[in-house]
User: Which sequence fits this backbone?
């Protein structure tokens, strides 16, 4: 069995030394003392390591079953879910008005990483509930909030998001699910939705579906889509669970991975729902949910890579195979451990530098969300909007790659299901697809976010990077090995932005042909920036005479690895972008 | 169901116009007239499309079963195997002395691609038989050849290679399987082997295992390893199948993919075997098998990507989702096909330009093998030795990536097992691992092949590229768009070689830390070179007034795509290589 070790030390470094959460001027952060957050992370880490991680394989092997129309989750999920609820974990960063603990989203993110690393499929039931909670809280009436939120904060009821239909995923303007007004303020919803994660389960007493549908007579396309709350069981006047609604599970999908998560075909057959937010403004309301979910998926990208990295590291340290080219390091044994081989070391450094960089970016993103939502800071809001597709797209592309690298270290043993590596790869694969496939993230970034608010957020990002470099360039521990490569990478990103500005209007294909490369170019600069910030924090700790020098030296070495071995990718992405639309669009569709 | 379309037109272009096989001065090539090869490929294509492809999903869903110690292959495999044998396909490029048809390896490679694209797991039974045939033919006694080869050419008996043991894969020096001489020229083999592909099956009446073992009293390490022929059933004096030998299947591995291929734990319990080749020279003999198998796995890399690309292309042409940014192309439909979107087009071009480039490199490699084996040409021998790890490592890394890209085009539909995309990705994953994991290929390339024969093969490669550029630089259709980028990429490769030469001796880690990057850098230059050759052939055809201009224009456009969008990777790989060992080796093993 694989052991999951919660990365509590690394998280503390980010929270206290890089993001300086304890002293941040954000309401609620006054609770984020190092001792408090350490205690929370330690408790969460125990649950993740001792309860969730051992169920990860069970979830993969057993999967979910559909019997008599009801979904049964894998053995042990119910008890673990109950334990999570009892510990109050499901409402950690939820509004105290509805029973939550009101902690910052940043702390919820740190804890959430542990849930995902230890058991991603299991965590989806509460993850989707949280996203549905946020949507109802943002757009619901007082009555809707009072009815649903307390039960969702406690996860007595779970939530879902119902967007996709058989003929439309990305292009929601095509959706056909209908909503007929009943004259009493309710609607009858009819249609079929597919790929509905946690669409049904035996963990909660009710499932609250958020459903996109078209009200009879609404305009065509995306302008005629409304959002509805459709519970699996109707809610009685006293708030208790009542009769079954017209909602049923048509089928469970058989998937490549995340077998512990029930992916359902949902049939709505005149099911009773209430409008959430305004008529025909459903897509906008759903985006509340989508944006939160996208950050969550970006987190999944590196959290799975962390778990896979931990397994690969242990294997490389233990498995004896071959001899170090510079002479045996284990002369009394039959061979040296795999980790002596430079190419194995490279693969581990790739994983480690990605995971820790992505964790830093995600935590910073969470802090920006806290700042935006708790202080109304528009700059923070603009910046996290810009970064959301990067966090989702780049981190899941690279997270999958990282899991594949971890699997590779196991050789043939990585390919058989006896070891956990195949599952990590199969599970990670979905993160590149759901909540907007990564091509859609790239389109969102280049087609929408880049020019949003007159380009202010993008310029703000460049200014932060520039300001950071300027503020630290006198530190010889950082200058050549971290800041110069970051400056060069950032210039590549600026050149790409210039190219889009100059060509995008007259030839939109020129920008869109480079969208995925731009997403990756941005991702590398963002991680390079986070590594520079971590390097600066490590350098400061070393200068102040820390007793934990090895930790900070390791941080600096990993930062330098990222700068030396990952940042050179920016020039390649820029070259591809500058080649424009012609190479990409040269063939007619029928010539492929 | 997915339809597989044999790429006969593309293969004919390579055989006739790029490699100029019909006129090549290699014995046996006089049979390679365009009409003859077209007829062979058409017949093979029918079998692949109509018989093998429909069984691909069956193989994945059913997998193999172990019952009462015998492996049962999936439904339909037996009949298809019989059809393949009856058609004489299994001995296509085998020695006529043993019942083969004596065709060039090049033709066998083209046909083999079709088997793999249509059903890779199925093809492993005959693929391993072919590799075992080659090893016995190269190292066997006259009696061994007479006993085994005719039955293996016809695939009445299948073959295997038994290398890996539970505690050793790459490091074969650790192997423990014992061989006790019986004094009558035979040995008793005892030990356990794992990950044995096609270790048992119900397709053939006997299974001929080639087994690495250590003769009692042999030196430790790799110098004490011998190779044995160990049949599942002993062979009677009259050549017929006799009593069971001490060979049994301990278990069937449950794997991420290639479910139709039986991956066995093999137990040898005093099984009778005969020595193949010389005592203690087993590893060298096994390398005959390994080198052939490595080219075969490199072929699997792009052949699976071809199948996945065909599916993705069809989906992108049919699935309606969103509108072209430059205005609707399907205004009467609800949406435009996916292929209008530049990012989808980019993903398809990545796949197409990789698959066709890798096919060209593999076919060229096969021609070099024919030249080396049929004329004794030492230059060809040196070059294909150098290229083997590139073909295996680069093409399987990129082939897997390409399958992932194809899966991505399907969105959520690509993640469910109802569509074939998950299987392509799961199947492709093994190609990066078996026959020497890709890290081992990179080590072989940098640590052995690069300096082999005083570096002559590497210098020979550079001279070919240089000579080709010089010969064609007056063609304006090629100069700027193909030859200049190739020249620049080739210079990056030369710079990497220089760096290794200057640093490798005093600090071997400096070379090995860059080995995987070097493999990829080389792979891109090799594909860039093949694309330049294809571009030149296309340009010549257009200049001569072909009636099939669209085909050649498409070739040129795809060549230019590779040059513009893939070759920029060489600079990134070079930068990583030049950063040397320090970033990679900075951490102590315990600091990971």
Assistant:
């Amino acid at each position: 069995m694989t052991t999951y070790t919660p990365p509590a030390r690394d998280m503390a470094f980010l929270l206290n030394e890089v993001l300086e959460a304890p002293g941040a001027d954000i309401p609620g952060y006054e609770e984020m003392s190092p001792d408090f957050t350490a205690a929370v992370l330690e408790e969460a880490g125990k649950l993740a390591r001792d309860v969730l991680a051992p169920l990860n394989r069970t979830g993969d092997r057993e999967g979910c079953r559909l019997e008599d129309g009801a979904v049964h989750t894998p053995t042990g999920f119910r008890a673990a879910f109950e334990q999570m609820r009892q510990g109050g974990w499901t409402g950690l960063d939820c509004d105290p008005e509805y029973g939550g603990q009101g902690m910052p989203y940043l702390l919820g993110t740190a804890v959430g990483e542990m849930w995902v690393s230890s058991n991603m499929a299991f965590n989806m039931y509460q993850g989707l509930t949280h996203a549905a909670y946020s949507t109802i809280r943002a757009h619901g009436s007082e009555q809707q909030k009072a009815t649903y939120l307390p039960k969702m904060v406690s996860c007595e009821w779970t939530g879902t998001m119902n967007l996709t239909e058989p003929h439309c995923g990305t292009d929601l303007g095509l959706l056909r699910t209908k909503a007929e007004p009943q004259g009493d303020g309710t609607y009858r919803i009819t249609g079929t939705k597919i790929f509905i994660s946690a669409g049904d389960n035996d963990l909660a007493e009710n499932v609250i579906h958020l459903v996109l549908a078209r009200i009879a007579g609404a305009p065509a396309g995306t302008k005629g889509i409304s959002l509805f709350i459709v519970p699996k069981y109707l809610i009685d006047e006293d708030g208790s669970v009542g009769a079954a609604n017209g909602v049923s599970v048509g089928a469970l999908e058989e998937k490549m991975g995340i077998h512990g998560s029930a992916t359902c075909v949902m049939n709505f057959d005149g099911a009773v729902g209430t409008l959430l937010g305004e008529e025909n403004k459903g897509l906008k309301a759903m985006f509340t949910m989508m944006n939160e979910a996208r950050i969550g998926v970006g987190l999944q990208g590196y959290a799975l890579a962390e778990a896979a990295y931990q397994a690969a590291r242990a294997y490389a340290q233990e498995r004896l195979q071959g001899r170090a080219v510079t002479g045996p390091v284990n002369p009394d044994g039959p061979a040296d451990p795999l980790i002596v081989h430079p190419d194995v070391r490279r693969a581990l450094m790739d994983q480690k530098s990605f995971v820790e960089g992505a964790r830093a970016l995600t935590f910073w993103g969470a802090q920006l969300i806290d700042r935006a939502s708790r202080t109304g800071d528009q700059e923070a809001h603009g910046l996290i909007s810009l970064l959301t597709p990067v966090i989702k797209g780049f981190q899941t592309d690279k997270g999958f790659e990282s899991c594949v690298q971890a699997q590779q270290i196991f050789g043939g043993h990585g390919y058989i299901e006896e070891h956990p590596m195949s599952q990590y790869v199969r599970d990670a694969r979905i993160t590149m697809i759901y909540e907007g496939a990564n091509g859609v993230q790239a389109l969102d970034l280049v087609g929408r976010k880049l020019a949003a608010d007159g380009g202010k957020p993008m310029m703000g990002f460049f200014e932060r990077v520039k300001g950071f470099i300027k503020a630290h360039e006198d530190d010889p521990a950082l200058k050549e090995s971290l800041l110069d490569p970051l400056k060069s990478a950032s210039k590549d990103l600026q050149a790409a932005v210039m190219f889009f500005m100059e060509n995008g209007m007259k030839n939109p294909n020129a920008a869109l042909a480079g969208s995925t490369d731009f997403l990756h170019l941005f991702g590398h600069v963002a991680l390079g920036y986070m590594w520079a910030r971590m390097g600066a924090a490590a350098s400061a700790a070393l200068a102040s005479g820390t007793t934990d020098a090895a930790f900070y030296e390791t941080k600096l070495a990993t930062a330098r690895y990222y700068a030396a071995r990952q940042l050179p990718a920016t020039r390649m992405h820029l070259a591809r972008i500058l080649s424009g639309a012609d190479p990409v669009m040269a063939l007619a569709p029928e010539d492929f």
In short: The mean pLDDT of chain B is 97.
